[in-house]
Amino acid sequence: MTSKSAEPARCAVIVGPYTSGKTTLMEALLHAAGAIGRKGSITEGNTVGDASTEARERQMGVEANFAHCEYLGERWFFIDCPGSIELAYESHSALMAADVAIVVIPPEVERVLAMAPLFKFLDDYQIPHLLFIGKTDKATTRIRDIMEALQSISSRPLLLRQVPIRDDDRITGFVDLVSERAYRYKEGGPSDLIEIPEDIKSREDEARQEMLESLADFDDNLLEQLLEDRVPGSDEVYGQLSKDLAEDLIVPVFMGSGEHGNGVTRLFKALRHDVPPPGVAAKRLGISMNGGLSASVIKTLNQQHTGKLSLARIWKGEISETGLIGETKPSGLYRLMGGDSQKITVAREGELVALGRLQDAQTSDLLTLAGPVRNEDFVWPEVPRPVYALAITPRNRQDDVKLSASIARLTEEDPTLSVQHNHDTHQMLLWGQGEIHLKIVIERLKSRYNVEVDATPPQTAYKETIKRQVMQHSRFKRQSGGHGQFGDVQMEIKPLRRGEGFEFVDKVVGGSVPKQYISAVEAGAKEYLSRGPLGFPVVDVSVTLLDGQHHSVDSSDQAFKSAARLAMSEGLPQCSPVLLEPIYEVVISVPSEFTARVHGLVSARRGQILGFEAKSGWQSWDEFKCHMPQAELHDLIIELRSLTIGVGSFEWQFDHLQELTGKLAERVMASQQLEH
To answer: Residue 94: which of 363, 355, 344 has the closest Cα?
Structure first.
């Protein structure tokens, strides 16, 4: 075969659920191409993918891993993505570099629904994808049953490209439905060509006809041949498959076992023949192919030895180690192979390359000769809102600055991670996509930056308010030699309607409280509200200064500020203070078959369902809107995913404060008093 190495490199992104076999499949593809001499093992911790300490300790993908090879004269780049739903955005960003996605499917019907969000993403972004039903050496479910379940979550028609050959209920080979050739798997190598077994011919004929009829939906000439009972040629079928895959009209389905190398050669050949060149993906992303250089930054890494690395897919042009991106020359140019980086001098169209220390470049930027460009017209997935938080404190108090700098680097790598300083609870909150996500982040703080933190559930931002008004007269007087301190105020303290905040009214007449001290009275009143008689910030209160007294020598700003604080501390306990808890509007999304479970979940968490309806754009999904106390939201995502095979999600926003009474309020106040 004539070498095509001068043609642009192509990129396949490997995605699928946790434990589906993605990393093992990439290992098999690299081995088939001769890029590695021996396939690694997840349990032995020596695979090209999952190279980080966190991944190998957990034996699961926790970040995108990059690899490359040459197969039959063509250059390929692979990205192996994590399977956890909590790390889905890592996959979404990687898919922005894809010419094709390889979706690895576990051979279990009950796990298919968990892949619905991934299929929806691929369909929404029109990313060409094919399916590889893996672990078929261990499969007990019929392929046709898996296909039926998969079709229920795909808006594109699935085209089975192979039918399995079984011996004693074990899949030992396949029949290719285009070439109509049969193959028997051979451990660690290409399959052996065999005669089509007699007992499978009828199934093969049926499956081939179904494949051709699906293809004919997109080609009138092929449809005409089928209506006239003419058999289309293999070359014509192959051409139609390639065309329809490039346009994301169909989803071809293959099968095999990455662990044993079964079906891997056939998969690689399909990639070679059917996957479109990089220009198709660039057009899909809204990237112009004009100009000298176009490269999308799909990931940012901060490494100990090389510093910041920007991972980019080159759509047009080339990048050299001596070239400039705007006014910046990268500190280095690298090609990644798992945990190893190989320094190179130039990278060309189609390649995935890491550029060192492009400080102005961010994930989703387009690199051009003029520099990084941020453009809202570029297609890029929206960053999901956080759903889980932990309050963190450095174990060593001297690590405060170091912690902030370390988290800044981690959030640059992972936009789904964020930090919030809660002014009500005075906690630093680390927000992310779930419990596993934040545990990984905490491990990285320790392993990469030598910062250990203690993590606890965040406190609820309770408030308090008052229910009745009082008139309060208070005097602050102190004599300690020289000038004393004197301030006297008469104030009316009364409640405001919920959400009106704080109001200060000056009704002093005759100068009993000189104008220069009025602002000090207001400041003293507001200062006290930071912690009221129940121990929480006070809201929705009006304070009216009616009268007072001053001393020509001893009065001062500080004296009147202290008098106002004294008046508030003496007056508010008489105003029937009540506890308020924050209530959030929560929108929960789940597959319809789990709708009944959501009703129970919301009720058990003191929630109030406001209504539910079919989720727009999602087939057989429901969306619930409810009110739920903030105190019940902390681990909501954990239980929700547990009840919905991992796919349930929610969004939230603050709605209002609501009075809390009874034993729960008593426990909250008792806990607050203990802490202070």
So the answer is: 363
129-133 and 100-105 as β-strands: parallel, antiparallel, unpaired? parallel
Average pLDDT over residues 438-445: 96
- Please answer whether residues 535 and 424 qualify as being in contact, where contact means their C-beta atoms are separated by less than 8 angstroms: no
- Residue 210: Cβ within 10 Å count: 15
User: For residue 80, what is the enclosing H or E element?
Assistant: strand 74-80
Per-residue pLDDT tens for 327-353?
A: 999 999 999 999 899 999 999 999 999
Residue 123's closest CA among 676, 629, 618, 527?
618
- Reported as a single tens digit per residue, the pLDDT across 188-232 is 778 999 999 999 999 999 999 999 999 999 999 999 999 998 989
Q: What are phi and psi of 248, to 5 degrees?
A: 55, 45
317 near 305, Cβ under 8 Å?
no
Which residue, among 13, 121, 7, 98, has the nearest Cα to 281 in the 3D structure? Answer: 98
- Distance CA(676)–CA(655), nearest Å, equals 29
DSSP-H helix ranges across 450-585: 515-528, 557-571
Give CA separation, 393 vs 15, 79, 458, 529, 544, in Å.
Answer: 35, 35, 11, 26, 40
Per-residue pLDDT of 156-176, as tens digits, reads 999 999 999 998 888 999 999
The whole-angstrom separation of Cα 87 and Cα 433 is 7
Question: What ranges make up the beta strands (E) of 304-450?
Answer: 307-316, 319-320, 333-337, 340-343, 346-347, 352-356, 366-368, 371-373, 388-394, 418-422, 427-432
What's the whole-number average pLDDT of the chain? 94
Q: What are phi and psi of 344, to 5 degrees?
A: -130, 165
Distance CA 522, CA 520 (A): 5
Rounded Cα distance between 412 and 407, Å, is 8
Q: Quick one: average pLDDT of 90-105?
A: 98
User: What is the C-alpha radius of gyration for the chain, rounded to an integer number of angstroms?
Assistant: 32
Phi, psi for 587 (deg, rounded to 5): -115, 115
